[in-house]
Amino acid sequence: MIVYWDLLILSTIIVNYAFIRTIAMLLNDRLKVYRVILALIVSVLMLLLYFLPYKTYYAIRYIMGVLVGLIAFSNKSIKIKIIEIVLFYLLTMTFIGTLFVFKIKSIILMIISLIYVICLYIIQGYAKHFKNIYSLRIENKKINGLYDTGNNTNYLNVPIVYLSQSLYSELFLYVTDIEISTVNNISKISIYQGPKVVIDKKSLNVYYAFCNIDTKEYQAILPNNIFDSSHNITK
């Protein structure tokens, strides 16, 4: 049987990337480029296992599959990591079974996988739109922000953007403490000045407050009045 290694390697990269991307999207795991690239390199090296004896091949393949999952996914939770690796195996085995039953060849596999990856990116883009998640930039930092329709907090009529505590740096200067009304009580928060927020190429004047945001899907919470901002912060 003739094996076209170029097509086999390319299809392996596309298929494994599609699986990794799908699982990350389902479990809200933010992928890191260098980890994904390293995982794909390992998956390509796994092709060399075909030259090993049958029993040895399967024994090492399972170990290497776990390694691909450990490298690709950056979630620190052991529970989530195990779920991601199990899902990776289930997708891989289901896909291999489908190839065997329908006798799909490498070139067709590559085309199907490529179309799937493109569709995945389109779906992910629309999902962010429906969830009111915006891409924004603060100085040189690019993050995602959730547009909170029920939040109109402001200080001196300037919108307040809530940032994850992990984003705090010397760029932000303490201004004062203010009290805000929440659903259950009145809370005191610290207000900071900082760089302008850039959303859709628009520079917006805002104040900042820092809080715990326990999701990797976004790192900021945007008030519903942020796009009405036309104020200059007085220094």
Folded structure, characterized:
- By secondary structure, the protein is α+β, with helices and mostly antiparallel strands.
- The protein contains 5 helices and 10 strands, in the order αααααββββββββββ.
- Strands 1, 2, 3, 4, 7, 8, 9 and 10 form an 8-stranded mixed sheet that branches.
- Strand 7 and strand 8 form a beta hairpin.
- The protein starts with a helix and ends in a 12-residue tail after the last strand.
- 20% of the residues are buried.
- The model has no long low-confidence stretch (mean pLDDT 79).
How is this structure best summarized?
With 235 residues, the protein is α+β, with helices and mostly antiparallel strands.
Query: Percent helix among the residues?
Result: 40-55%
SSE run: HHHHHEEEEEEEEEE
Tertiary shape: elongated
**Major sheet description:** 8 strands, mixed
What is the residue-averaged pLDDT?
Answer: 79
How many beta-strand segments?
10
Distance between the termini: 74 Å
Structural class: alpha+beta
Query: Radius of gyration, Cα only, in angstroms?
Result: 23 Å
Secondary structure layout:
Blueprint lengths: L4 H22 L6 H13 L8 H19 L5 H25 L3 H25 L2 E6 L2 E8 L5 E2 L2 E7 L8 E9 L4 E8 L3 E3 L2 E3 L2 E5 L8 E4 L12
Parallel strand pairs: 2-10, 4-9
Antiparallel strand pairs: 1-2, 1-7, 3-4, 4-10, 5-6, 7-8
Key traits:
two-stranded antiparallel sheet; 23% strand; 235 residues; 8-stranded mixed β-sheet; single chain; alpha+beta
